[in-house]
Amino acid sequence: LEAVRGAQVIIYDDLLDHALLDEAPAGCELICVGKRKNSHKKEQEEIHELLIDRARKGLRVVRLKGGDPTVVGRGGEEALALQEAGIPYEMVPGVSTCISAPEHFGIPVTHRGMASSFTVVTGHGAGKTAESFNTLAGIRGTLIFLMGHSKAGEIAEGLIKAGMYPETPASVLARAYMADEKR
Question: Which one is catalytic: 41, 42, 91, 147?
Answer without folding.
Answer: 147
